[in-house]
Amino acid sequence: MSEMQGRIALVTGASRGIGAAIAERLAADGAHVILTARTAKDLEAVEQRIFEAGGNATIAPLDLAEAGSIDRLAAAVRERWGRLDTLIMNAAMLGTLTPVPMIDAAEFNRVLTLNVLAQQALISSFDDLLRASEIGRMIVLTSSVGARPRAYWGAYGASKAALENLALSYAEEVRNLSSLRIAIVDPGRTRTAMRAKAYPGEDPATLKLPSVVADQIAELLRSGFETGHRLVID
User: Fold this and answer.
1) Which of 59, 127, 192, 227 has the CB geometry, 3.0–4.6 Å to 43, for a possible disulfide?
2) Nearest to 156 by CA among 114, 199, 184, 193
3) Residue 224's pLDDT is what?
4) Half-sphere exposure for 107 (CA within 13 Å, toward CB)
């Protein structure tokens, strides 16, 4: 029996790309997966693939940046299951790649709201549910630009650097207080819509599929990793 059998997992940004692949893999391993993203139609397609493969899922269409949306989702999970075993923090916004002096303030605010503020809200709202699990796990998706600054990537890179610091600070806070473990995952060069937007001339055939990232995360969840672990997928 898979270690994910009967576990409750929440995957953000689950309507496509890496998020959808992770959701489908966790469901295949026996987890009941809660799928969140803004587009209900795309979530329904992922849910249907999960059902057809014999898995179980629940869709929860919502905008993480909308005030109160995360609290409402946490309340629903608390009422139905009373715990959350796995939180995959995948949702993110790229924004425009531009020199730092040219960053649009309104767009930068949107990037920070989704990539940082909404992620802290997820931690805050699901903290007690993750601690209620005997095997609570939180996986935070990042980017190499969060640790290694790159020209024109300042807005997105700053948001990922802030997210990593936030998540690792939380990891230290709960290290000796619960069984919850937190890991940072850099998926590397992957065939996604965000990657295509950032590198429009790149041949997608040269990139790994999102399923490769999903497989690596599934293996990480089985590994009993130490909190604060960082996985870079080449």
Assistant:
1) 59
2) 114
3) 86
4) 13
Catalytic residue among 152, 156, 170, 199: 156
Quote the pLDDT of residue 89. Answer: 98
- Beta partners for 184? 140, 230
Distance CA 167, CA 119 (A): 9
Q: Give the distance from CA 68 to its chain's centroid.
A: 19
Average pLDDT of the residues of the chain: 96
* Position 1 pLDDT exceeds 80: no
| Residue 156 is a catalytic residue | yes
Distance CA 27, CA 25 (A): 5
Give the domains, in start order, of the chain with CATH numbers. Answer: 8-232 (3.40.50.720)
> Number of C-alpha atoms within 13 angstroms, CB side, residue 128?
9
Confidence class of residue 171 from pLDDT cuts 50, 70 and 90? Answer: very high
Q: What is the pTM of this model?
A: 0.96
Query: Closest Cα partner for 74 from 128, 113, 21?
Result: 128
Residues 6+ apart with CB under 8 A from 1: 30
